[in-house]
């Protein structure tokens, strides 16, 4: 096999990044372990407890490590303790959160629904399909955050969960989480927060978004995005073990008694790399990275504005800008990895840790060169 992975030096569209060296090393070391079988792979399972405890610290959820997944009866007997597990990514965390809510719902019609903003990731569509729940998509306002009035109008006795996004995929926006919690509680629904991408940046902002700030029941936060862990390492955090138990199935021939994960065999590499990255970077390394990435995003936004492009200002390190399609295509042809929003085809620049100022300068130099070439190609009026 001679293929090489892509280099990150022109990647501006991805929510993944170069893993931290310690995370890469840990991933390699734990490649052949399976935390899905904690009775056999005990050190991987212990690392998962550690991962969940550290994620809990990041999202304001105090977790007794003994209560993390894999401990079966013990955890259940204690009940009510916050917990979670390392998922394959944000998709699994979101699917499982919807599954918890569906299991919990005492739906009047027998067909529970989940209210999501239009800014929600497409994984909620997968969840709705798989779990046969209705997805009620509500609009966002001009600032790309969920329209609270529309959420109030959408919830009813069939609502199993209300979803808020803390760091949206397309615009990096944070929904008003405490208000969504109140609306969810008013109809006895759960509140799920999707912080899959934003979760490792948000602790360093002044926004109210975490378990300690609001009535959050479940949350997605992915080490394999801003957390600088290797893929696959997502996170699902749950306010209490009785909620996680909604997912548990019995595992008769394993030494552990039940399993709440969606996948069975799963890589210990993601788990180990998540712990290694968080031990290296939480909190100072993540803070420094957030500050660097946010400055880069703001600098890029200014540079694009000066050049006359319409820019959606970065709240988190993600800039969206209107760049004409032919120019977008020329940039892609030069090797720049760019992608666009679904609605008005704005180019998204995700300022992940591998995105440096030098890289952005080199991008802008290409943009200017291609732009002036395009301008020269258009005959001026009267020619
Ligand atoms: N929630 C949010 C807010 C997300 O942005 C994403 C993924 C997910 C959930 C789903 O996470 P997983 O992809 O880990 O299951 N957002 C990116 C997207 O779909 C994922 C991505 C990552 C895309 C790397 C490209 C890429 O190179 O745009």
Automatic annotation (TrEMBL):
GO MF, one annotated term: pyridoxal phosphate binding
EC number: 4.1.1.11
Listed InterPro entries: GrpII_AminoAcid_Decarb, MfnA, PyrdxlP-dep_de-COase, PyrdxlP-dep_Trfase, PyrdxlP-dep_Trfase_major, PyrdxlP-dep_Trfase_small
A GO BP entry: coenzyme A biosynthetic process
Taxonomic superkingdom: Archaea
Residue(s) carrying N6-(pyridoxal phosphate)lysine: 225
Keywords attached to this entry: Decarboxylase, Lyase, Pyridoxal phosphate
Role according to the record: Catalyzes the decarboxylation of L-aspartate to produce beta-alanine.
Protein name per UniProt: Probable L-aspartate decarboxylase
Pathway stated in the Swiss-Prot or TrEMBL entry: Cofactor biosynthesis; coenzyme A biosynthesis
Gene3D superfamilies reported in the protein's UniProt record: Aspartate Aminotransferase, domain 1, Type I PLP-dependent aspartate aminotransferase-like (Major domain)
Enzyme class of the recorded protein, top EC level: lyase
Membrane-crossing residue ranges in chain numbering: none
Organism listed in the record: Natronobacterium haloterrestre
Protein family per UniProt: Belongs to the group II decarboxylase family. Sphingosine-1-phosphate lyase subfamily. Belongs to the group II decarboxylase family. MfnA subfamily.
The keyword Magnesium is annotated on this UniProt entry: no
Catalytic reactions on record: L-aspartate + H(+) = beta-alanine + CO2
Cofactor: pyridoxal 5'-phosphate
Keyword Nucleus: no
